[in-house]
Amino acid sequence: MILIVVEHDQGALRKSAFELVGLGRSLAIASGARLAALVLSAAGDDLASELARYLDEVHLVRDARLDPPRAETVTRAVAHAAQTLGADVVLLPASRAGLAYGPRVALRLCGSLLEDVTSVTFEGDTVVATRPAYLARVSATVVAKAKPVVVSVKPGAAPIAALADTSGRVHPLAVPFAAEDLRLEPSARQAVVKGRVALEEADVVVCGGRGLGSAEAFERQVVGLADRLGAGVGATRAVVDAGWRPYVEQIGQTGKTVTPKLFLALGVSGAVQHLSGMNRSGVIVAVNKDADAPIFRVTDYGIVGDVHEVVPALAAALEGPD
Amino acid sequence: MTIVTIVKQVPEAEARVRVQGGALDLAGATFVLDGMDEYGVEQALRLREAGEASEIVAVGYGPRETEQALRTALAMGADRAVLLEASGLDDPLTVALALAEVVREAGADLVLVGGKQADWDSAALGPALAEALGWPHVDWATAFTLSGQAFESVHEIDDGSETLRGSLPLVVTTQQGLNEPRYPTLPNIMKANRKPLDVRPAATEESRSAARSYAVVERERRRVVLEGDASSAASELVRRLRDEAKVLG
């Protein structure tokens, strides 16, 4: 059977949950396997009920010890559910959290891990996936050699599932948490500015680089344009290192991978590490005053010019009659 | 207290990675100590300088050439090194199980490992190693302090950051922002050549997953450069995004 682990935030299922449902459905149809979803929550059954409108079988672990989520409590819960339900494949989101508990679950189940994949299929009984390697300069086809197979799926790798004509059942599931699952004591969780679309979920991303020159200019040009477009805000490593923006906005090897429909790179030179986090975007636009900047090799539309002149012009053009 | 710091030898970020008939061709690429791991080596040195650690063991897993990365760690200041020699690119779970043996043997209470390996593009090694040891882990640390067995660490999570406290043993995955790694000095590079480096074959089970083939990922891009002054280029861009690419309403 195929088990999907869904993530949620502030009482709502994340976009990745619906992507995994879509992916799980197609794998279940192709293999004839049973499909179920797992919800881990400290409070409320609403998320499980919502999910039951998408698939027939939903398992809910409701336990106060899951808040705040820790890699070890989540590992315990997912591994327990996978074992109890007899999962052959566990699909989870390749979020920062998923990348942390995924390997632990795979090892605890004596299975294999296909990490951060962009596609996944069955070849007969074998699970095969594609994933980036070598700073996303190449794509590797990887084969799982041990079962169960834990697969973490990159955001945006699958289309969002449509509502099914079903009212599935929600089954409560108790997990035997151990004291050792609670060894780390979390405190001082600092969420970055809410109210803006999450970077991995945004259809449009505006990303700024060192070419902006200062934190103030970044705020004015990049955040200003993002607000106008209802876009997510991204930054390069140089910007984050300079302290202009928080790490959570970083795109690239150490930051996030994004695949929006439209990616605007402002004052971004295009280092390999950065490209690895955005080169799968739909349409890429770059504004940079250096015509030889590597970013122009991966762009659909480029403007060679000063971001401080081009961005206000762009804002004006967006306002203007079309 | 002994700290183990895991190091990996990877192709330089700027190296060209080619694919020939589905196989990877890294000929001509320069290999270096993975930048992510340097933060771990540096953090171990700082903990020793603060009197919180007595010994630093750099441990590598990979082909014989990984010795160079281990020598770099020794030149930065690690006391000794162990290389588990393995020919292929084994999956992180297999590597973690092999490394766990070395960590146990060294009697370490703290393991530092890069947040993401620049060859397999994987963030799994740290969490997998913690699991293999039965320890907790902190991923993507940007701050780490230790006082005796008690630690406090700030790490990055999906929507921001979080502070975690606890006591050793622990695996920490490191990244930029944690510290500024030092450059090895010439005298220390000379000294590193005389430090013990123990090479042994990695006695591992078969990989639990393997790469079957590779392909170069290059998406076709229009690569249109819009000419003219800022205002006309911007107008043309908006028109094209609406009418040609159809990504703006």
Fold and architecture overview:
- The complex is a heterodimer of chains A (322) and B (249).
- By secondary structure, chain A is an alpha/beta fold.
- Chain A has two domains: 181 residues, Rossmann fold (3-Layer(aba) Sandwich); 121 residues, 3-Layer(aba) Sandwich (Rossmann fold), CATH 3.40.50.1220.
- Chain A is built from eight helices and 18 strands.
- In chain A, a hairpin with a 2-residue loop joins strand 8 and strand 9.
- In chain A, helix 3 crosses helix 4 and helix 5 runs parallel beside helix 8.
- Chain A starts with a strand and ends with a helix.
- In chain A, 57% of the residues are buried.
- With 249 residues, chain B is of the alpha/beta class.
- In chain B, 29% of the residues lie in helices and 34% in strands.
- Chain B is built from six helices and 15 strands.
- In chain B, helix 3 crosses helix 4.
- The relative contact order of chain B is 0.17.
- The chains are: A alpha/beta (322), B alpha/beta (249).
- The interface between A and B is large, with 95 and 81 residues.
Question: Topology, please?
Answer:
The complex is a heterodimer of chains A (322) and B (249).
Chain A: E1 2-6, E2 8-9, E3 12-13, H1 15-31, E4 35-41, H2 46-51, E5 57-62, H3 71-85, E6 89-93, H4 96-108, E7 112-117, E8 119-123, E9 126-133, E10 138-144, E11 149-153, E12 169-172, E13 185-191, E14 204-208, H5 215-229, E15 232-235, H6 237-241, E16 262-266, H7 272-275, E17 283-288, E18 301-304, H8 307-319
Parallel strand pairs in A: 1-4, 1-6, 4-5, 5-12, 6-11, 7-11, 14-15, 14-16, 16-17, 17-18
Antiparallel strand pairs in A: 2-3, 8-9, 9-10
Helix pairs in contact in A: 3-4, 5-8
Chain B: E1 2-7, E2 9-11, E3 18-20, E4 23-25, E5 31-33, H1 35-49, E6 55-62, H2 66-76, E7 80-85, H3 92-106, E8 110-114, H4 125-133, E9 137-147, E10 150-157, E11 160-167, E12 170-174, H5 186-192, E13 197-201, E14 209-216, E15 224-225, H6 230-243
Helix pairs in contact in B: 2-5, 3-4
